[in-house]
Design brief:
Pathway: Cell wall biogenesis; peptidoglycan biosynthesis. It catalyses: Preferential cleavage: (Ac)2-L-Lys-D-Ala-|-D-Ala. Also transpeptidation of peptidyl-alanyl moieties that are N-acyl substituents of D-alanine. Its EC number is 3.4.16.4. By secondary structure, the chain is α+β, with helices and mostly antiparallel strands. The chain is 38% helix and 20% strand. α18 (404-414) crosses α21. The protein is elongated. Residues 1-5, 702-707 and 713-725 have low confidence and may be disordered.
Length: 725
């Protein structure tokens, strides 16, 4: 028995050893395969990295006037930033936010106001995870499981349930310090991973910059940098700045891309928190002013940590936009308008609260000044004058007799009248139509086209309109049987050639075209069209109209941009010209040159001959001014209650009349009277004087194309140069 036992035990041991040997051989074989066949693959997997390209914003280009004066520049700001890694837990970010809250002050009214209800709810969940989870019942979970959602969808549904069930009391329970942490945390969470996000860039103290710099080792992702903010060099202490409404605004880093344009901007390389132009010039020339972002390639490992950074493209601030605006003239125009409004803003003029002046080069379309002022009550009830330059293109009014030059030329064009045609100015009486007469109600008698312009005859224009409408003869107390549709069609077609009733094409968004009335029931309204009392036009259209006559019949597109320049080596220098904005002719009047010249003669007589409607009030005749005065009775549609019939007082003119270089329009709406009251002509006279006085003081030299340095530098700009250097 013992012998058999001895034999049995070694056999079992041998079998066991053999099995171990086989397993060990298989393991060696498998390791060999991994080492030899897949070795490189696994090595690459371990070393696997990812390239992440990010863009760093740069300062915007500057906005400069035609003479080299800086209007809008960039003010350097100390900033604290956070760059979020690709892989990081929200709890870790919260811990960094808590540390930052002990080092910086971020609890201003603006900071707390920026916190949304959703921010508060997300923060409450983060701080109270157990209480948050308790808001979801087992029944809720069972109902959701029945939907057979995948894990992400299920978690999202759970989160939405929690959000809905958080009470107002709970989101209002945060202490002041917790709200400060939240204000920091929400900034850290916005934007893209690996892109620096501004935590604070306003009122950052030297102490805050220093303490952050000293503690960077315990604040992963936090850093300091020099940021920038837009500022207007002409902005006064009370917040007023000339032309501010036209210059437009940019979004803040908190606002980022406008929601309605976010997809478009992101498609062309913007980040969600980029600051962009959101109105008028800043918006219109965004592509020019935005600059070229610095592109950095961040190499990250599998954990999302940056292991290497390479600059792919250096940043370059935006190109500079040189405007056609003359800021010295702009300021003088605004002073003239303000003074005239304030002088007449009395109890006897309760509705007169605004006035507009557009100054343009009639040969190039360059806008030299765009003045608009609005008198409105502030929060304390006191009247204050605010910028309303935009009113030149977004508000429209009945312009009255200023359009009579277009009526006369339309008469020539349609064959209704010819140059030197005489018509009798007398009161007109039609069946079922109100009496029609000139301002001189007894009439001027037999007059020709030039005298009609000089004395601003309404009846001459009425009779011309009748002929255009197919009624060649006036029959006292007879019917007015003109073809209303055909007459208005011909008028509007011809008026559009001057820019009246159509967009001028100015390089600003939001231009309005005014109001084109429907075909009226009363044929007398068509006659009113001929004297500028039916359709409404903008002050900008009015200056384009008078410019078209001044330059011999070419409708020029008005524009505010004059040049686009590369950035200079320093902020105080202008770089080379990239593009000059050339005059653009929109159309040429389909009218004979001699017709236009005859109407020009009529406009000269308005200002320079006795009995001309502008002769007495426009005193600076040495400047050889030509133009047309206007008054229009129209129903008030302003901000005050009621709709009384008021008077719009207007003027459109140019100078010198033998070689026009400047054209202006003046619109003063809503006067209660037109008798012995001519603020429109006072403003026009002073604006022409301001223009020519500036020209004389500058030695009659146009220097806008040869400027090399940017003038009127402020202390902040000089500081920026120092930082840049």
């Amino acid at each position: 028995m013992s012998k058999k036992k001895k034999v049995y035990i070694p056999i079992r041991m041998n079998i066991l050893f053999f099995i171990v040997f086989l397993l060990f051989s298989l393991l060696i074989f498998r390791l060999g395969i991994v080492q030899i066949v897949y070795g490189d693959t696994y090595k690459n997997e371990i070393k696997k990295t990812q390239d992440v390209i990010i863009s760093i914003p740069v300062p915007r280009g500057q906005i400069i006037d035609r003479n080299g004066y800086l209007i809008v520049g960039n003010q350097p700001l100390n900033a604290i930033t956070y760059t979020r890694p690709q892989s990081i837990e929200t709890e870790q970010i919260l811990e960094i936010a808590k540390k930052l809250a002990r080092m910086i002050n971020k609890k201003s009214e603006e900071d707390i106001k920026a916190i949304t209800e959703r921010d508060r709810k997300d923060f409450w969940i983060l701080k109270h995870p157990k209480e948050a989870q308790a808001k979801v019942s087992p029944l809720d979970e069972a109902m959701l499981k029945k939907k057979k959602l995948d894990k992400n969808e299920y978690d999202k549904e759970i989160y939405q349930l929690i959000l809905k069930r958080i009470t107002k009391k709970e989101i209002q329970s945060f202490t002041e310090k917790e709200l400060e942490v939240l204000a920091i945390y929400r900034e850290m969470m916005s934007g893209y991973p690996l892109s620096p996000q501004i935590i604070k860039n306003k009122n950052v103290t030297k102490e805050e910059m220093a303490i952050i710099a000293e503690n960077l080792d315990v604040l992963p992702g936090v850093n300091t940098m020099t940021d920038w903010d837009r500022y207007n060099t002409y902005k006064q202490e009370n917040g007023y700045a000339p032309l501010a409404s036209v210059l437009g605004k940019i979004t803040t880093s908190k606002e980022g891309l406008p929601r309605e344009l976010a997809n478009y901007y992101e498609a062309i390389g913007y980040s969600r928190n980029d600051r962009v132009g959101k109105s008028y010039l800043e918006y219109q020339y965004e592509e020019i002013l935005r600059g070229q972002k610095e592109k950095i390639n961040n190499v990250t490992n599998k954990q999302g940590n940056v292991v290497e950074s390479n600059v792919l493209r250096k940043g370059k601030r935006g190109n500079d936009l040189v405007l056609s605006i003359d800021m010295e003239l702009q300021q003088k125009v605004e002073e003239i308008i303000s003074r005239e409004i304030m002088k007449h803003k009395t109890a006897s003029q309760p509705y007169l609260d605004r006035a507009f002046v557009t100054v343009m080069n009639p040969n190039t379309g360059e806008i030299l000044a765009l003045g608009g002022k609005l008198l409105e009550a502030d929060k304390t009830g006191n009247n204050q004058m605010v910028d309303f330059a935009l009113g030149n293109m977004i508000t429209s009014y009945s312009m009255g007799s200023t359009v009579k030059a277009a009526t006369v030329l339309t008469g020539y064009q349609t064959g209704a009248i010819a140059p030197n045609t005489y018509l009798e100015d007398r009161p007109l009486y039609f069946k079922d139509t109100k009496k029609k007469s000139s301002w001189n109600t007894s009439g001027f008698g037999q007059i020709n086209d030039l005298y009609a312009l000089k004395r601003s005859s309404n009846v001459y224009m009425f009779l011309t309109a009748m002929k255009i409408g197919g009624q060649q003869t006036y029959i006292p107390n007879g019917p007015l049987y003109i073809d209303k549709v055909e007459a208005l069609k011909k008028f509007r077609h011809n008026f559009a050639q001057f820019g009246l009733g159509v967009k001028t094409g100015i390089d600003l968004p939001g231009e309005q075209i005014g109001y084109g009335g429907a075909i009226p029931d009363e044929p007398g309204k068509v006659l009113d069209f001929a004297i500028g009392q039916y359709d409404t036009y903008t002050p900008l259209q009015l200056v384009q109209y008078i410019s078209t006559i001044a330059n011999g019949g070419y409708r020029i597109q008005p524009h505010l941009a004059k040049e686009i320049r590369e950035p200079g080596e320093h902020m105080s220098e202008l770089g080379p010209i990239i593009q000059e904005i050339s005059p653009k002719i929109l159309n040429k009047l389909d009218m004979k040159t001699e017709w236009i010249e005859r109407v020009q003669q009529g406009l000269i007589s308005v200002v320079n001959e006795p009995l001309g409607t502008g002769y007495g009030m426009i005193k600076n005749k040495q400047f050889k001014i030509a133009g047309k005065t206007g008054t229009a009775q129209a129903q008030y549609d302003g901000p005050k209650a009621g709709h009384p019939m008021l008077w719009n007082l207007t003027f459109a003119g140019y100078a010198p009349y033998d070689n026009p270089e400047v054209a202006i329009s003046v619109v003063v709406p809503w006067s209660v009277t037109d008798k012995n009251f001519s603020p429109n002509l006072v403003i026009a006279d002073e604006v022409f004087k301001a223009y020519f006085d500036l020209k004389k003081n500058r030695g009659e030299m146009e220097n806008s194309t040869t400027i090399q340095t940017i003038k009127k530098q402020t202390d902040t700009t000089k500081n920026e140069e120092t930082i840049e250097e």
